[in-house]
Structures are given as C-alpha cells and as structure tokens.
Amino acid sequence: MSAPEDTPLLEIEHLSVTFGAAHAVRDVSLRLDPGGTVVVLGESGSGKSVTARSVLRLPGRRASVRGRIRLAGCDLFALDEKAMRQVRGRDIGFVPQDPNSSLDPLRRIGTQVEEVLQVHGAVADRRARRARVAELLALVGIPNPARTARSYPHELSGGMRQRVVIAMAVACAPRLIIADEPTTALDVTVQAQVLDLFTTLQRELGTALLLVTHDVGVAAELAADVVVMYAGRIVERGPAAAVLTAPAHPYTAGLLGARPRPGLRRGELAAIPGGPPPATEVVDAACAFAPRCGRAEPACSATAPELRDVGPGRAAACLLPIAPLQEVGA
Amino acid sequence: MIRFLVRRLVLAVPTVVGVSFVVFLTAKLVPGDPVASLLGPLATPQARAELVAHLGLDRPWPVQFVTWLGNALRGDLGMAIHEPRAVAEIVASSFGDTALLALAGGLIALVGGVVLGVLGAMYPKRLPGRLTSGLSVVAMSAPQYSVALLLVIVFAVHLRVLPAGGMTDPIDGGGLADLLVHMVLPAVSVALIPLGVIARMFRSALTEVLGSPFVEAMRARGIGPVRIARHAAHNALPALFTITGLQLAYLIGGVVFVETIFSWPGIGLTLYNAISTRDLPLIQGGVLVVAVSFVLINILVDAAHALVDPRVRR
C-alpha cells in the first residue's frame, strides 16, 4: 500500500452500521492524516466504539455495515479475510478497552508479544524476535523488559498490562493506532502516563492515532481534532482547543457542563436531562438530541440537521448552533 | 509446583479421615445384625457373645473406629465374613479390575466428549452443533442399565461379534487381545453418560473462551483462526480436567449396574455382593477405597490444573 503524500491515511465515508433493528452508526464520515490524531468523544451507546472497530472490520456479531473505509487509499471492505488479517496488527495497531482481560492469562507476556511479530512476519529470526520483544517492552516504558517478558499477565499491574498491550499494537510499526477507551480501566495517575505514552510513540514512530473515549479530559489532554458523536451521528467536529472551550452544539456544551471540576459545589454539576434514545428508536427526520435540548424549537423535531461549518475547521450538526464565544454550559 | 502438591496432599489428610469416619458410621447404621447373619437364628447366647468379643463389637464405637482406622492405615482392613480372605486382598484385586474398566470408559468419554464439544463450539448454529448437542443429551439421559442390555442383545446375542460378559474367555482366555474384546461393551456402556457430560461442559467452556475479550483482542491483532483455537483450547483445559476427573471418580464408584450385567469382577460387583450378605468389613473396606480414590483423583485434577494455569500454582 503506497499512496501520494496528500492522501489521508484513513478515510471513513458514509459509514452506517446496524445490528438488526438497532442503528448503531449513521452516516459517519471522518478523515485522519498520516501522523495525525482524532479523538472520538461520546457517551456509551453513541456508536463511537462500533465506528472504531469497523475500521478493523470487527464491528461485532450480526452487524451489517455500509459505506466505505480506506486506509492509505486502499478500500478495506474490498479485501478478503486473509488480507484483512494482515492489515490488523501490521498496518493498524489496536488497543482495546480493558488491559486486564485482553491478554491470554495462561501465556507469558513475551510469548504473546512475540506472537504478533511472528504472525505478521515482522522479524523472521527467532533470536532477533526475542530481542525485538525486549526492545518493544522498553519502548513503552516497562522498567525491566527481560523479567516482564517472562511474567504472566496476572503478575503485572493494570498500567503495566496496558503498556504491554500498547507494545503489541506498535510491534509491527503500524501507520495507525486505534485505541478504544484505553484509559478507562486505569487509575487516574496511570491514565495520564498512558496518554503521554501515546503522544511519545506518535512522535517517535510517526503513527496516526484514532482514540475513542467518553472522557472530555482525555480529548483535552491530547489536544487533537475532536469528533463528538451522539446517537450514532457526528454532531460536532473541530480542533479540541476550539470545540472544548466554545462548543457549537448544545450536546457538546452539555457534556462539558456535566464534567466534574475542582471548586464545584454539590448540586452545581449540570447533568443533561433525560438519556440518549435507544438505537432502535432514532428517526432519520429529526435531531436525535432535540428531546433533551434546552434550545430545541419545533423545527428540530422535523428536520435532521446536516453537519455545517461553524468556524475555521469546525462543523456542527445543529439548526441553532451556539454562537462562538458564548458562555460554556449556558 | 512441588510445594503446591505437598500442600494439597497434606490438606487431603483430614478429608480422608473424615471420609473414613463417615464410611465407618454408615456401616454401623446399615440395618441388620452382622452377628445374627453370621451365626443364624439358632445360635446360643454364648456363641453370640464370643463372636461379638472376637469382632470387637462390644467395645465403644470410637474405640472401634480408631482401631479400624489404625489397621486400615497399615493396609489391614480385616477379614471378610463370608470368604476366608483378607478384605484388603479382595478389594485390591477387584478395585484394579474396576480401575481398568473406568479408565477405558473414561478414555472413550474423554475422546468422544472433546470431539463433540469442539464441533459444538465451532459450529453452534449449524448442523454439527445441533447434532452434537442432541447426541450428548441422548448419551446423558440413556439409562446405563438398558443401554448395557441393548448392547448385549445386539452385539453378543444377534451379531455374535463380542462376548456378553466376563473379563476373559474361560476356555482359552488370557492375553491383552482377549481382555480388550471383553472390555468393549462394558466400557462403552459406562462411557455414555460421562461422554455426554464432558461434551456439554467442554462445549460451553470453549464457547465462553471464544467470546472472551482476549480472543477479540487477538483477532484485532490479525492472529489467525488456528492460533486462536490453540489459545482457546489451552484456556478451556482446566474445565476439561475438572469435569473429566469428576466423571472418572464417578465411574470408579458408580459402575455397579454395568459390572453386574457384564459379570465384571470389579469393586461394584464386590460391594453389591457384600451388601446383600451384610459383610460389614468388606463393605467398609470397599467404600473406603472408592472414597480415597475419589480424593486422589481430585488431587490429580488440581495438579493438572496447576500445570496449565499459572494463576493456580503458587
């Protein structure tokens, strides 16, 4: 797979994923440049994980997928299963949500990291492969790589396990890392370390990162492009600095308002009223957020808003976007 | 690993003592007076008193228990009442024959159960899955007794390809081939229920592993189905060991019917005869050996589990 310089690394076009009657992802399009970072932000059930997993063509059982996904110009949906297996792990590294359950509990760490290298033929010679395993473990900041390679998963802490999983994701020097809530299962202090690790690896390896999270803080820390999803749709996108300080979509504003901050007294935390609609009940001809939105007008329940430009590099799917520089959480 | 085994063995001691206590008490609670059954209704009170003293039945039962247990530890289980042989000798030979039958049946159950279980886990919604789950239900629910009789009628009476009973041919018997031929029908009869149980348990264990997050993570790393199957099988092994061990223990203790039908001279047949003749020392000895083998099999299962799973051995 080679592509001219200006081709985006990842292009998702009009992706829709349904599970029977449940419409999990609706017409999602996004692009990611080589070495770039996109954070997909949304609450559970917003379709962010399914979007990320669809890039690996592992959306889940009984999913039916429409749309197109291209990696460096190559149509992933056109590949046969064997070729797709080569893409997984070699071109795209995946970091799943829970490091505590994403390693085989019965195999040594070293063997499991080595298996990735072996399967993708990254290092042919056995001894060289062992050496590479130690290098990789050192790369992700594991203090004693040789000893860790001989350990079993249950002998490591959650943070160490997540580092191992990240080592496996970057083992074959992929061009893209997809991380699905990589910090959710970790302690807050470890979360920051893992995010730092992603940034460092990106700088050193030139890898692009597609990170899925429900945590506004994670998006702010990575200071990347942010894509906010709600009920299977993208409701807002743009640079983190702009979107997270002056959101254009009322839902983004609600997310920011619902975020606990120091100095906030009891009762001041603003929850968004109601809950997201079930994926089986989202209608195409209305804004899915309208029933929970304080700014909603009758028109919001009659037309589905398209993503429209609301500023430099920014777009929001709202008929009545919040004007720039307006107070957050109003 | 060695420390793990030693600890398991030490922990087994109280279990065995407890088990033997229950065995001893049960034999005490069995209705019927062994002295009356030995001497008959016309015995004189003096003869009765002599026999009671000889068997030690006049002493308090805790003393009887400790004496019995002490002797048992030295391999002395007393003399059988209706046969002029030591209980230990009878039990040892018949237990060996049962173990042979149980191992053969266990092997059939293990191989058949694993094959059915793997097919069922790999193709749950398609023909192999449905077929294997049906087969395992039939295997589990078919009464051993009628299956054994049916096998005899078909293979020994009508087709005349296999012997109807016994361990060896009485005329020109002996040798491994003869033993194996005699073992087929009883081994298949005892294997059916464990086979069904193992198939179902292994299928559900495999299905669970195949749906676990680490398998999903392996798929996302581009690891192929053959390697995934290997990881899954490894992770389902502890469940397989546990259920196979339990079934083997069940086979050793529960082959009375089959041994009776095929006149297999095993511990089941021995116990059956001992119970019908109120041969108390033989009952106690036989049940004790079965119970102790149950405990030992469980230790073996734990050891196998520890070999496979690093989280267990410590």
TrEMBL record, chain A:
It comes from Pseudonocardia thermophila. It is a peripheral membrane protein. One of its GO terms (biological process) is peptide transport. Keywords: ATP-binding, Cell membrane, Membrane, Nucleotide-binding, Transport. Pfam families: ABC_tran, oligo_HPY. GO terms for molecular function: ATP binding; ATP hydrolysis activity. InterPro entries: AAA+_ATPase, ABC_Ni/Peptide_Import, ABC_transporter-like_ATP-bd, ABC_transporter-like_CS, Oligopep_ABC_C, P-loop_NTPase. Residues 10-256 form the ABC transporter domain. It comes from the Bacteria. Belongs to the ABC transporter superfamily. This is Peptide/nickel transport system ATP-binding protein/oligopeptide transport system ATP-binding protein. One of its GO terms (cellular component) is plasma membrane. It is found in: Cell membrane.
Automatic annotation (TrEMBL), chain B:
Gene3D superfamilies: MetI-like. Pfam families: BPD_transp_1, BPD_transp_1_N. It is found in: Cell membrane. The chain crosses the membrane at residues 9-30, 99-123, 135-159, 179-199, 237-262, 282-308. The keyword Disulfide bond does not apply. It is a multi-pass membrane protein. GO terms for cellular component: plasma membrane. Keywords: Cell membrane, Membrane, Transmembrane, Transmembrane helix, Transport. InterPro entries: BPD_transp_1_N, MetI-like, MetI-like_sf. GO terms for molecular function: dipeptide transmembrane transporter activity. Coiled coil: none annotated. Residues 95-301 form the ABC transmembrane type-1 domain. Belongs to the binding-protein-dependent transport system permease family. This is Peptide/nickel transport system permease protein. The lineage of its organism: Bacteria, Bacillati, Actinomycetota, Actinomycetes, Pseudonocardiales.
